[in-house]
Amino acid sequence: MHKGLAIYPGSFDPPTNGHLDLIERGAKIFEELVVAILRNSEKSPMFSVAERLEMLRQLTTNLKNVRIDTFDGLMVEYAKSMEATCILRGIRAISDYEYELQMALMNRKLEPTLETVFMMPADKYSYVSSRLVREVAQAGGPVKGLVPEVVEQKLKEKITTPKRETRSIEILDRIDLGGKELDPKDTKRKKKV
Ligand code: PNS
Asked: What is the rounded distance in angstroms from the CA atom of residue 36 to the CA atom of residue 40?
């Protein structure tokens, strides 16, 4: 086992079986592993940081040397503040390599003492990504086996529950209209944020 702490940074929107597989592998190699969720990503996420934190916590309760955290700004600065010695990233296929290489070399330029370590998840997860999971789930397709059950359940809830933001805008719209009900055909007012 490698002495020291490693950071496994990512968006985890949502966590997949591939992520979990990598966390389990990383936990065997490193003394301590911190799974760090990026806050303030430019992308508009499906799950809030709090939801992702909660899901990852639930999924890793059995792994005693794994902690879940969030970070903002430069990852290397966060890693330094945690006194980490390694960054853990997963590579599924050759298509991941170019982006991961760029990121690893940029991180090395920013902080030469931090080493990026790549691990491969099980080949059965080599095509699984958060983006495709979101896409399949949003279109009503099955995601069983691609994500842990707790995530599968959360995805179902997300898709069947109307967005709170949309509902609150509709309520605000009603107030704007002086309490008059919305015309259901007036779709322009049912905007999303
Ligand atoms: O799961 P993802 O979206 O592939 O993770 C990307 C992540 C969060 C690891 C990367 O975007 C990141 O580290 N962002 C923090 C800002 C930063 O340090 N950027 C320079 C990286 S070279």
From this structure: 13
Domain boundaries, the chain: 2-129, 162-193
Fold type of domain 2-129: Rossmann fold (3.40.50)
Residue 81's identity, in one-letter code, is S
At 81-107, the pLDDT tens digits run 999 999 999 999 999 999 999 999 999
Distance from Cα 72 to the centre of ligand 1, integer Å: 10
Task: Give the predicted TM-score (pTM) of the model.
Answer: 0.84
Which distant-in-sequence residues (6+ apart) come within 8 Å of 124 by Cβ?
none
CA–CA separation, 193 and 191 (whole Å): 7
The catalytic position among 19, 52, 89, 154 is 19
How far is the first Cα of the chain from the last one, in angstroms, to the nearest whole number? 47
| Gap between the Cα atoms of 41 and 30, Å rounded | 27
In the three-class reduction of DSSP (H, G, I as helix; E, B as strand; rest coil), residue 44 is classed as coil
The mean pLDDT of the chain is 87
Which tokens hold the place of 50? 């709090």
Q: How far is the CA of 10 from the centre of ligand 1 (A)?
A: 6
| 53, amino acid identity | L
Give the separation between CA 184 and CA 193, rounded to whole angstroms.
Answer: 19
Three-class DSSP category at 32 = strand
The confidence score (pLDDT) of residue 162 equals 61
